[in-house]
Specification:
Layout: H1 12-18, H2 52-61, H3 66-80, E1 90-93, H4 97-111, E2 121-125, H5 155-162, E3 166-171, H6 175-178, E4 187-188, E5 192-193, H7 209-216, E6 222-227, H8 233-238, E7 242-245, E8 265-270, H9 273-283, E9 316-318, H10 337-352, E10 356-358, H11 366-371, H12 374-393, H13 404-413, H14 415-418, H15 427-433, H16 440-464, E11 469-473, H17 479-485, E12 489-496, E13 518-524, H18 530-544, H19 562-566
Parallel strand pairs: 2-3, 2-6, 9-10, 9-11
Antiparallel strand pairs: 1-3, 4-5, 6-8, 7-8, 7-12, 11-13, 12-13
Helix pairs in contact: 3-4, 12-15, 12-16, 13-15, 16-17
Domain Amidase: 68-433
Organism: Lentinula boryana
Pfam families: Amidase
């Protein structure tokens, strides 16, 4: 059984080839409002931690504008993305962002804000489509898709724009959402290797690596990631964030470069559960361009109503130890044992908050999930069919790539761009290309997946032990049952590796574990149980405030604040 963390140095020559700047340079510090700073003004929010509500308060009060926000975030990206620690978290910024911000500022002045996301900058993972006229690419990190023209904005992007959000830029990712081959998390041909901000060159996890890193240190207000198996959950944990991997069908995947329609989902990655709930409330909902969204409940709740510090009081929370904890690297005396220790302490906090912890509450299918190869069969088959359809559906693509076979050939023909030393693998591409469509074996694997993850897995444990949710560390096999069943996961900060942890190798340029690198706690439930899971995550987050215990390493913390662009 393989865990797939899916959807989870670039030289000057590569930047020139892309003809798209990684960062929109700023030379004019003045705010469009022309205001002078006043010592008597209320304190401006610190962008490292600033919440959506804090930013909205400042915008409503006229302390600063959305133009100021865009300038400040651009400057912060400039400081650490390709300079200093070279985190390589942002693959490109939006050249239209300042113009959009000015328009939204004017609209706010006349008619007020559309929503809590009005004028708020959001970074998108680079597999989430935006229209070419805006000036950004959608490439999944690959030069093969550079300057390709998508037919429309992604469904979730349309919802963000309607709510008044500003697309700040595109985040780096594991190329093709970590489905190209045996490559390290956070590496793509276009973006290079994304690094964690909590220890130099630490693994950010993936595939939503850049979404995690940008949000973790305030290069954006919030970000969107995508998950097929682990790609929101793992980088949320590794970057000290709160994140929601929604049920398949709660958020639209239309306009998102696919792996599998049966597992792909799009969700928020934020510095707090509150911010994640605000974003999820905007992007959830039906989309005629994604028929899986027709299965969601008729009314999408306002997830901010789940933000209850007493949510765990009276709840029954189960601990599925078999396979996921017992005998794993998270227990015992190994380098990851700090996660297991912190998890046991988290269970005490959950009890203190009034929950009954049922321990163990094992999944009947746990051993079968660990042995199963069904997920690989499903993903390999789906990817070939769906990526071929994506490529054929592009309005234009200068590389001429129109199929998975073309992608493989492009990478082999352009090794300096796509296959530098130590980053040559295309094993997933090749395995997928070898599939022969929707065979009996495929449909059997798909059916088994749903049974193992759902009826014999998460749902079985919830029913057998009369549970409201399950809880596990975010690392390890935690994401697999929810992935194959299409069920949600809500993740919050759990802890950090100690200073004496043995540093391990995670890839040619990355390390893991490492001192100070974060890890997360995940609440899992049945389909469309996000409301309850958000409440449980919020109660735990507010009790522990783990995120605030540690910041990134000093060189990775941008210095630019709002006052610097407003002066």
């Amino acid at each position: 059984m393989k865990v797939l963390y899916l959807c989870c140095s670039v030289s000057i020559i590569l930047l020139a080839l892309s003809q798209t700047p990684f960062v929109q340079c700023l030379t004019t510090p003045a705010s469009i409002s022309g205001r002078e700073l006043d010592a008597g003004d209320a304190p401006l929010p610190d962008l490292y931690e600033a919440s959506i509500l804090e930013l909205q308060d400042g915008l409503d009060a006229g302390q600063f504008t959305s133009v100021d926000l865009i300038k400040a975030y651009f400057a912060r990206i400039e400081e650490v993305n390709l300079q200093g620690p070279s985190l390589r978290a942002v693959i490109e910024t939006n050249p239209s962002a300042l113009e959009q911000a000015a328009s939204l500022d004017a609209e706010r002045a006349v008619s007020g804000k559309r929503s809590l996301l009005h004028g708020i900058p959001v970074i998108l993972k680079d597999n989430i489509a935006t229209i070419a006229s805006e000036g950004m690419n959608t490439t999944a990190g690959s030069f093969a898709l550079l300057k390709s023209v998508v037919p429309d904005d992604a469904g979730v992007v349309k919802k963000l724009r309607k709510a008044g959000a500003i697309i700040l830029g595109k985040a780096n990712l594991s190329e093709f959402a970590e489905f190209r081959g045996n490559l390290p998390s956070g590496w793509s041909g276009r973006g290079g290797q994304t690094s964690n901000a909590y220890f130099p060159h630490a693994d950010p996890c993936g595939s939503s690596s850049g979404s995690g890193v940008t949000t973790s240190i305030g290069l954006t207000a919030v970000a969107l990631g995508s998950e097929t198996d682990g790609s929101i959950t793992c980088p949320t944990g590794n970057n000290n964030l709160a994140g929601v991997k929604p049920s398949v069908g709660l958020t639209s995947r239309a306009g998102v470069i696919p792996i599998s329609e049966h597992q792909d989902t799009v969700g928020p990655m934020a510095r707090s559960i509150t911010d994640a709930a605000i974003v999820l409330s905007v992007i959830a909902g039906k989309d005629p361009n994604d028929n899986f969204t027709s299965a969601q409940p008729p009314v999408v709740p306002d997830y901010t109503q789940a933000l209850n510090t007493h949510a765990l009081n009276g709840a029954r929370i189960g601990v599925p130890r078999q396979v996921f904890l017992d005998g794993s690297d998270l227990t015992g005396n190994g380098s990851l044992s700090a996660i297991g220790l912190a998890f046991e302490q988290a269970l005490d906090v959950i009890r203190e908050l009034g929950a009954t912890v049922v321990d163990p509450a094992d999944l009947p299918s746990a051993e079968a999930i660990a042995r199963s190869n069904n997920e690989t069969v499903v993903l390999d088959t789906d990817f070939k069919i769906q990526i071929n359809a994506w490529l054929e559906g592009l309005i234009s693509i200068p590389s001429g790539v129109r199929s998975l076979a073309d992608l493989i050939a492009f990478d082999n023909a352009n090794p300096s761009l796509e296959e530098p030393v130590n980053f040559t693998s295309q094993s997933e591409f090749i395995a997928s290309e070898a599939t022969t469509g929707f065979t009996d074996a495929y449909f059997q694997s798909l059916s088994f997946d749903h049974e193992l993850g759902g009826a014999q897995g998460i749902d079985a444990a919830l029913k057998m032990f009369d549970l409201d949710a399950l809880v596990l560390p975010a690392q390890g096999l935690t994401t697999v049952p929810a992935a194959i069943a299409g069920y949600p996961i809500v993740t919050v900060p759990l802890g950090f590796f100690p200073s004496n942890v043995t540093i391990g190798s995670a890839g040619p340029e990355t390390v893991y574990p490492a001192p100070g690198v974060p890890f997360g706690l995940s609440f899992l439930g049945t389909a469309f149980s996000e409301f309850d899971l958000i409440g449980f995550g919020f109660a735990y987050e507010q009790k522990t405030k783990t995120r605030l215990e540690r910041k990134a390493f000093p060189a990775a913390i941008p210095k630019t604040q709002l006052k610097d662009v407003m002066a």
